[in-house]
Amino acid sequence: MTEDLVLPAPREAATDATDAPGEPLLVVEKLVKHFPVKGGFPIRRTVGQVQAVDGIDLTVHVGESFGLVGESGCGKSTTGRLITKLLEPTGGSISYRGKDITHATRRQLAPIRSEIQMIFQDPYSSLNPRQTVGKIISGPMEINGLEPEGGHEKRVRELLEIVGLNPEHYNRFPHEFSGGQRQRIGVARALALEPKLIVADEPVSALDVSIQAQVVNLLQKVQQELGIAFLFIAHDLAVVRHFSQRVAVMYLGKVIEVGDRDSIYTRPRHPYTHALLSAVPEVNVGGEDTEDGEDVPQRERIRLAGDVPSPISPPSGCRFRTRCWKAQDKCAAEEPPLIQISGNHAGHLTACHFPEEPTIEARDEDIVLDPALVALEESDD
Amino acid sequence: MWIRFKRDRTGVISAYVVLFFFLIGLLAPVISKLYGKDPYTVYADERPELFDSAGVPVQPNGGISGEFWFGLEPGNGYDVFTKLLYGIRTSLMISVAVTLATVLTGILLGVTAGYLGGKADYWISRVIDFLLAFPAQLFFIASMPVVVSLFVSPRDETPVYVRVVALILVQWFLGWMSLGRILRGTTLALREREFIEAAKVSGAPPGRIIRKEILPNVVTPILVQGTYMLPNFVTAEAGLSFLGVGIVEPTPDWGQMFAKASTELVMQNDITYMFFPGISMIVFIVAFNLLGDSVRDAFDPKTAR
Ligand SMILES: Nc1ncnc2c1ncn2[C@@H]1O[C@H](COP(=O)(O)OP(=O)(O)OP(=O)(O)O)[C@@H](O)[C@H]1O
Ligand code: SF4
Ligand SMILES: [Mg+2]
Questions:
Q1: Backbone phi, psi, residue A92, to 5°
Q2: How close B100 gets to chain A, by Cα (Å)?
Q3: Which of these, A90, A108, A125, A97, lies nearest to A197 by C-alpha position?
Q4: How far is it, in rounded angstroms, from Cα A141 to Cα B199?
Q5: A116 in helix, strand or coil?
Q6: Residues in chain A with pLDDT < 70?
Q7: What's the rounded Cα separation, in Å, for the pair A268 and A292?
Q8: Is the CB of A228 inside a 6 Å radius of any atom of ligand 1?
Q9: How far apart are CA A252 and CA A322, in angstroms?
């Protein structure tokens, strides 16, 4: 993956003012998605709502890589599917380049369909087993009436080369490829439409650790050289660390902290972000801290207890309060707003009544809330 | 997959047997022309010297001779060989038509239910449950005359094609559910696969998704189920004709030959008559079912033999 990518010149010049880097590309406001829970006999009726996404605000700028992080089940995929219009939002709004697409139908969406693409989590289910690689990648072009110079086949070969695959594999079927290669095919398919925004839903979490880095590098290259904005979804902070300029942390359908990379990784304020960070393996911390000439300090240890509460009946007030070591009465009564807390950099927003210190250095005492872990450690001593 | 099938000796042999039967059916007019007889000639009138006073062939074994290879039918004295050829032809034509109709219906309703989900799925599934609860054999027997009378008044002579159409309709009506249900399930599972979402994200209309993404992935269950259904339709059709509600004399039909074989006159005087339609049908059904097994094995290497 060291060879330079051969990239075709951008097809259309960026004449549009909204194409300039830094302009908001995608704006999501108060986005809500509830899934009805059906039950009852003999007449099935709605007995509850899974509050998968419950009022989130996000802005992705042109050419920016944005990371969305959260534990399993917190609504990351749902958010991605809402943005790519695979799901119909329950409330809120999504606008793309200033155009409201919240409830756009397939036809209304047609002009911008090609600009928002998606890379999927599972490379084994995201490629149709009965289509050749060529068909898979040229399909989107066919649907959108794209007629690249030199025909579809030439373009597909070009794309295969861009994602680091042999163009001669044009006529092969997906089962002849490994997971990493399949994911590259998925990337090529997303690139076929020359999108401006790619939603990548845990694009590497199904891959071998050794291959993850390769695919992340590929995505990074694509992002930087083609100037495509990325919404990169991941379930831990390690993967998005080197990839994303800005990061949002989700918990139970809400964004609880958002900010640029440095703010989130070195000056987090929300207790949950602290907990997530302490779960990041130490080895890849390196990088920024040492370059700044600082010693790598011992990091804090936080081990949360219990599971994420059910999104069907989330806790009142702050949703993290059932697992938070700082929770007080106010947390149950009032929902903390997502605001810039004093001491935060601009654009670093946190939703917490009693934020933590902006550091990730080791505390006097580790926070270990899991009774089983406590018992384990005690027996160790 | 094709290679796996070819390695399966039983499968290949039964495929040839099945093919042989279809060729016979297809070429029945050619064969009988070469052979020089047809299934409608009443040899009891044409060549009375071959029959005794009761209408039973004089020669032993039902009148088998160099001239009448499979003998003659007691009573009217039809030529058994050509009759069997044409009988196979009629039966297979009807069964193939029923299979095509049921497969098409199964695809249409099953894939629709699975892909659309929600209300459409609910109602199609309820219809499937309802129809599956019908006692099929009883329904066939009871409804055949009803369906026929929809086309012609009972006093008139019923044309052959009406009986054929009625047979197809009745079997189709209760035949599509199993495939429909299987396809509904497969489509439901496929719909959740990410490549369907990928197609949606690139703006594919539902029609294209069904044609290009779903249908190629349900070919296997269709073929497997189809090879199981066809022999069942052959026996069902034979059963109906045997019971006298299907194809009737003088139109030759496989099942109706059994009916003839079990009449008193034939039973008591000419056991050999039963032999030809019986053996041929057993061979056909067994071969076709073995073929079905082999097709399934070839498509699905996980199931052990
Ligand atoms: N189609 C659906 N119907 C009902 N509930 C759903 C549906 N899709 C998701 N959910 C629920 O919404 C919640 C959020 O799901 P989502 O897939 O967005 O989580 P996630 O953050 O992507 O998790 P993971 O890391 O496991 O992919 C979950 O509780 C899930 O059970
Ligand atoms: S608001 Fe309260 S419960 Fe929620 S994270 Fe902050 S301190 Fe913990
Ligand atoms: Mg997910």
A1: 85, -170
A2: 23
A3: A97
A4: 11
A5: strand
A6: 1-21, 40-42, 281-297, 370-381
A7: 18
A8: no
A9: 12
**pLDDT of B58:** 77
Instruction: Count how many Cα atoms sit within 13 Å of the Cα of residue A181 in the half-sphere of its side chain.
Output: 15
- The token duo for A205 is 């979490």
Q: Determine how many CB atoms are found less than 10 A away from the CB of residue B209.
A: 19
Q: Where are the domains of chain B?
A: 28-41+78-253
Nearest to B246 by CA among B176, B128, B151, B141: B141
Give the distance (Å) from ligand 2 centre to CA of residue A279.
19
In angstroms, the CA B91 to CA B100 distance is 14
Instruction: Fill in the DSSP letter of residue B72.
Output: B
1.10.10.10, 2.40.128.130, 1.10.3720.10, 1.25.40.10: CATH of B28-41+78-253 = 1.10.3720.10
- Residues with Cβ within 8 Å of residue B256, at least 6 apart in sequence: B87, B241, B242, B246, B247, B248, B249
Write out residues 106-135 of B within 8 Å (CB-CB) of A. none
Nearest to B292, CA basis, from B3, B8, B7, B98: B8
pLDDT of residue A374: 67
Q: Rounded to an integer, what is the distance from CA B11 to the centroid of its chain?
A: 20
Single-letter code of the amino acid located at A41: F
List pLDDT tens digits, range B77-87.
Answer: 888 888 899 99
d(CA A122, CA A26): 25
